[in-house]
Design a protein that fits this description.
single chain; about 90 residues; alpha+beta; two-stranded antiparallel ribbon; 2 helices; 5 strands; elongated
Length: about 90
């Protein structure tokens, strides 16, 4: 699964742009197993972009909340992932 982070981390004078897949919240809450964001604890709207964390089992959260969660709780894991995938070629659309 491809995860995308809408953040920029400056490392060795290069900008690394990461991205995470987000998906549109389904029409029924039972499909994702949650009615509220596990980060901000606000109820999901009828249409929301949601995602999850690849580094922990926090659950479903707003895409913008996931950005904050990952940067505040998993910065070291993100840096390690950057290092491990440095040489991978991008797809044409990336």
């Amino acid at each position: 699964m491809l995860y995308c982070y809408k953040v920029q981390i400056i490392q060795n004078k290069m900008v690394v742009v990461l991205w995470r897949e987000e998906w549109l919240k389904p029409l029924s809450d039972f499909e994702i197993g949650s009615e509220i964001c596990q980060y901000c604890k606000k109820r999901f709207e009828d249409i929301d972009f949601v995602t999850s964390c690849e580094f922990c089992e926090i659950g479903i959260m707003h895409s913008s909340c996931a950005d904050n969660h990952v940067l505040n709780n998993h910065k070291e894991e993100v840096i390690n992932k950057i290092k491990s995938q440095r040489e991978r070629r991008l797809h044409d659309y990336q």
